[in-house]
Amino acid sequence: MTFRRHRGGPATGSSGHRISSSRCRSRTCSAVTARCLSHLRHPIELPTGRYVKGLEFHPGVPRAVHHANVKIDRTRSSRRLDDDDPGPGFDGGGGRGAMFPDGHFLGWTPGQAPHMLADTAWRLDAGSDLVVEVHMVPTGKPERVQVRVGLFFTDEPPSRVPYMMRLGRQSIDIPAGTRITA
Predict the structure, then answer these.
(1) Domain count, the chain
(2) Helices marked H in the chain — which ranges?
(3) Is 52 exposed, middle or buried (0-12, 13-18, 19+ CB in 10 A)?
(4) Distance of alpha carbon 16 from alpha carbon 6, whole angstroms
(5) pLDDT at 161
(6) The domain spanning residue 114 has which CATH number?
(7) Is a pLDDT exceeding 70 seen at residue 31?
(8) Per-residue model confidence as pLDDT tens digits over 93-144
(9) Domain-embedded: residue 165
(10) I need a surface site. Which of 28, 52, 107, 144 has the fewest CB within 10 A?
């Protein structure tokens, strides 16, 4: 995948740099009646690491995409999975080397606009791969999904580093229709 550089962003009017795909990878979801999970891997061809202050995502076929997660793979394990799959990207829950940047959850849901991080940019190392986990929903027919991702760069390192902590339980079972009062 090749990238071209832009100034600013159409949705945000911000300054800085953005990369977006000039040739989209695509994936056909063959699941007509069940959800499918597909991973699209995009090598990031940067001469040196950069700080990223924002992300813009376009699903291509919004009716077929429930949500997407954007992760970074510094280990190249996603490249091996992609090479083993005959089409673009790879299916299933693989890509264990692909992680969210420290303290950040990069995702997209329908209607979500791009936003810029004022002081908590994250580091994108040269040679990393961008891995987009696309969670598709059935539309009654196979869909060819082409995603586009824009990254907004900054030269400023973060002045604060967020910390992500998951709070929850897997053992909570609340039957459907149960009324909950505080």
Answers:
(1) 1
(2) 77-84
(3) buried
(4) 8
(5) 86
(6) 2.60.120.310
(7) no
(8) 656 788 999 889 899 998 888 888 879 999 999 989 888 888 888 888 877 7
(9) no
(10) 144
At 32-77, the pLDDT tens digits run 555 677 778 888 888 999 999 998 888 888 888 899 999 999 988 8
Q: What is the mean pLDDT of residues 8-32?
A: 44
Q: 40 burial class (0-12, 13-18, 19+ CB within 10 angstroms)? A: buried
Is residue 136 in a domain?
A: yes
Token pair of 75, please? Answer: 């280990």
- Residue 51 near residue 122, CB atoms below 8 Å: yes
Is 89 a domain residue?
yes
Calpha distance 61→66 (Å, rounded)? 10
**Lookup result for tokens 């699903």:** 59
* CA dist., res. 82 & res. 59, Å (int): 20
User: Domain containing 57: what range?
Assistant: 25-154
168 is a domain residue: no
* CB-based burial label for 115 (10 Å; 0-12, 13-18, 19+): middle
Sequence-ordered list of residues with C-beta below 8 angstroms from that of 38, at least 6 positions apart, any chain: 27, 29, 89, 90, 91, 133, 134, 136, 145
